[in-house]
Amino acid sequence: MAVSVNEAVSPGPVRDHPPPARRRSGRGRTVLEVALLTVLAVVMLFPVLWMIETSIKENRDVYAVPAKFFDFKVTLDHYRDVFVASGGGRSTLSVSFLNSVIVAGVSTVLATVLGVPAAWAYSRFAVRAKKDQLFFILSTRFMPPVVVVIPIFLMYRQVGLIDNALGLILIYTAFNVPFTIWMMKGFVDEVPAEYEDAAMLDGYTRLQAFRKFTLPLLVPGIAATAVFALIFSWNEFVFAIFLTSSDDVRTAPPAIAGLIGGTTVDWGLVAASSVVFALPVLVFAYLVRKHLVAGVTLGAVRR
Amino acid sequence: MAGIEVTALHKRYPDGTVAVEHVDLSIADGELFVMLGPSGCGKTTTLRAIAGLERQTTGDIRIGATLVNELPPAERDIAMVFQFYALYPHLRTRDNLAFPLRAEGLPKAEVRERVDEAARLMRLAPLLNRRPRQLSGGEQQRVALARALVRRPRAFLMDEPLTNLDAELRADMRTEIKHLQGELGTTMVYVTHDQVEAMSLGHRIAILNKGRVEQIGTPLEVYDRPASLFCAAFIGSPPMNLIEVEVADGNLCGQGGLTLTAPPGLPRDRRLVAGVRPEALEVAEPGAEHSVPARVVSAEWLGDEIIYVVDHGGRRDVRVRMPSTVRFAADAKVGLRHSGGAPAVYDVGTEELVA
Ligand SMILES: Nc1ncnc2c1ncn2[C@@H]1O[C@H](COP(=O)(O)OP(=O)(O)OP(=O)(O)O)[C@@H](O)[C@H]1O
Ligand SMILES: [Mg+2]
Would the CB atoms of A194 and B15 count as touching at under 8 Å? Predict the structure, then answer.
């Protein structure tokens, strides 16, 4: 009987099949998993797909019964309508989008500028009743925004901030600062204080040490936090609809909602503006996805 | 270069923890001064107060002739090496070294020269273009040391700089630090909880316990005559045997009939404990001259020596260090005798050295 040397000593992969029972259960599970995930994906993605489809259908096809899934004529008219008014010039929707960009952008920057140093201070310094203060800051987020919308409305009316972009910026900043402090504190805790200590011994002041050494290490965390803050401000609806009324000031969410409710609803336009509305957040999150994941997992591990 | 004077230092953290109760240190110019103590005794806090990273609650700190209480760390002109090195992660070795110099605003040529010199001293030349995470722990530590000395500060502060290294590397770095300090002649305060490190490095050692200084002395003084029961139990491995004794006939008598030479000038009316180093005792054949009967409880063979745990009928078993040529089996009947001079004797009440 000839046994090849190769076979006899081969340390390579064993050709033996694993026990059949395990294999079947393994493959069975995979099939089931894929099937379930497919169903889930279809159910979850259908509204999004339908929105995209509707946005590129002609009005005729939008209302077609039975619904047309594939054989419709593609048009970009609705997208044009989002940005260009029917008589030429800028549409009111495009103004709303611009407002959204300004309000969300400015409030995010403000929340970051205020929240990051605060988080640093809470992380590094012995602050009196630190735990209580942090809990208080967090507790401002326990309350759903809609609870405070009436008081805010009354106060804003007194100071003339109703129907004013500044009003929205302030309220969004106020909502994002606590979040920024909490999330950023996790990141700052992760950066050893020794970097700053070393820098201070090397001749820098405390603030310089923070700016030059800790801040660069916080960039991923700041990116992640800012994206979350941006998404909150961008999507916010309740304050926007209560505190603004004119087309010049309104942000996109109430503006898009306002498209529904006339005698006829231009679903194509609604869908197109929704797509335009959803895109920036998706793109932004995609661009910083590396930081998002790194940031979220880093911040999650508390020492 | 300068000496460091710490007077009545007391530090209470805002949460109420008293980290340093009362510390007086007088560190000479050019001295390698070691602070040794168990975890949590306030070593780091004291060091950070000297560096200015922590403001003391009360007490004075002088560096050279200057009272530095109100000076920020940047103006104290000292360098510190941390346990976690704290190399700037986004900078290459070269820039990590150059950093403190650029902060001082030195001209480029001089920065280069000093970095190269420090790199030569710590043998870092091949590592100059790497970032910290591309360096091994030992290499990072060398960079951290180089960064401390590149500035030519008035004093070095070291907070357990070798803790994260493996034993062999630690021994090498220890030699290197000692050599470097001797060469530069810069005052160094070195914090550790490793007594071997303390013994081999320090010109003088301060033993800290619960925020107080228990003893300050040369390694020899600290080893031979620990100033308190705490030091006696802390220094040496295994540490001193603490044997309760009574004075009789000019000798010290322990339980089980063990007699030790008495030092002169012992108080008669107090309860006393003798601190006997394991190497000042001897395990002999049963019935040997001056020995008391005893039994070997266990034997730890450490290669070049054996530590015997011996029961001689006293309250506690004693440890005896013997050369590894002298072998007794566990449970063997032996004789135990004292072979050294007069031991250190402590008062049980005050826990302090009385003679
Ligand atoms: N920032 C702080 N706030 C409150 N308590 C602190 C703080 N830093 C240290 N402590 C406490 O002060 C005491 C002394 O701490 P310190 O760090 O000086 O000890 P250590 O001797 O360096 O110990 P180790 O050998 O473990 O480093 C400890 O009880 C510690 O818990
Ligand atoms: Mg410490």
Answer: no
